[in-house]
Amino acid sequence: MHPFLHPLPAPLARRRFLGRGGMGFGALALEALLGEGRVHAAAAPPARAKSVIWIFLSGGYSHLETFDPKPALDRFAGKTYDQTPFDNPVNSPAHRKRFRSVPAEEINVRDVYPVIYPMQVGFAPRGQSGIEITDWWPHLAGVVDELCFVRDMWTTDNDHAAENQIHTGRHRLDEPQPGIGAWASYGLGSLNEDLPRYVVLGGPTRSDTRQSIDALYLGPKHGGVPLAVDPADPLPFGRRHPSQNEREQADEIALARRLGALAAAERPGDAELEARLRAYELAFRMQTAVPEAVNLADETEATRRLYGLDLEATKLAGERLLVARRLVERGVRFVHVFPSPYGVWDSHQKLKENHTRLCGTIDLPVAGLVRDLRARGLLDETLVVFCTEFGRTPGLEQRSGGVDGRDHHPNGFTVWLAGGGVKRGHVHGATDELGYNALGDGHYVTDLHATVLHLLGLDGRALEVPGRRRLEMDHGEPILEILA
Predict the structure, then answer these.
(1) CATH number assigned to the domain comprising residue 222
(2) How far apart are alpha carbons 431 and 68 in whole angstroms?
(3) 3-state DSSP of 55-80
(4) 132 lies in which domain range?
(5) Among 334, 369, 374, 322, residue whose Cα is nearest residue 455
(6) Which terminus of the chain is more solvent-facing, meaning fewer CB atoms within 10 Å of its CB: N or C?
(7) How many domains does the chain have?
(8) How far apart are CA 147 and CA 424, in angstroms?
(9) pLDDT tens per residue, range 393-414
């Protein structure tokens, strides 16, 4: 046992107890409000999943050329919306309801390009379920009967701040809110005190998307902790100084804990002090636990091939997804994976070329993750979420003389989930014949958040902090129709 885990000497222990018990009821109340997986148990649904692997593809993949193929785009290619037998989707009340642009409406042509652009890839029914996905996913096609597609997602930001919106539920013109990973951390206790509850692999890669993993008013301990897939240096500033050995560092942490106990007795209820001490201790434990978790040397060659680590095109995504499996295996609650760099799916031009290449970088590793989780008995307790910030326009993007791309499209797009209590081989919701609007009410992005929390055994509406009342849109509603 490390020294900082030893009991305090009796006088210090008494002072600390009195500080917390006699005058420190505020500290106890704060810890109760912070949840630690206990405070909302009475109202919570039964947990079906222990952990989440949230896979985010930055830039906006085309739902039309991935998971929601639309043959009408080929039949009416080159025609305008008004030249088809379908109602013009731009005139739909749904378009107006879900359209919230930062630039003035009269100069913003996004979403409304009128000339239909044909699909750039073929498609076919896959698996026993017969779900149609496109030919760019040969490996995911092999596990399609494990997947649950939600084809009627929508959001409101038509620019890349939507990357934050799909994680926080808030448009960039609104007050920021914590991300979904932070809420999961806030509502759940830890399964492994030597590792963070919320880990981020591969991102965010820009300061303006940091908000996606931020905990904001929930406190820094609930924010995403970025790790590198490098056992020699996985955590920024996470190594001991070369002049210090492990015993010396342990003694240093022990001294900080004892000094902190004295300060706590004098300043009962100082949550910032307690959080800083806990951070020191977690960092100390992580110096051993994190390098082991991200070290892939003990994985078999068969497993490495399953994730595509032997191929240059798939190695980057494969390493991150394999580490994600190792982390949930070790008790990390929420693993946020960016399997490709920032914005690369943003195919304003050369959509066919870009998506052909990009699908090839992640198709094998993501399918490998699903297969590996199933083979290890982990899929039923691990929820996999695969998403992007918005879809792409059914119309040809014509800005700057464009001839082969699609613009941003928040009005309707597709995400999928697997494991963790969702239906297998299932499609929920739809867009219209041209893939423009999510039909009916569709699902705003916080419905996806509510579903994830529900499957983790949390009532999202109970996760509120006094003085920080959330709006109805922040909560969303669980998509009960997709639950197994």
Answers:
(1) 3.40.720
(2) 8
(3) EEECCCCCCCCCCCCCCHHHHCCCCE
(4) 46-231+295-482
(5) 334
(6) N
(7) 1
(8) 5
(9) 999 999 889 999 999 999 999 9
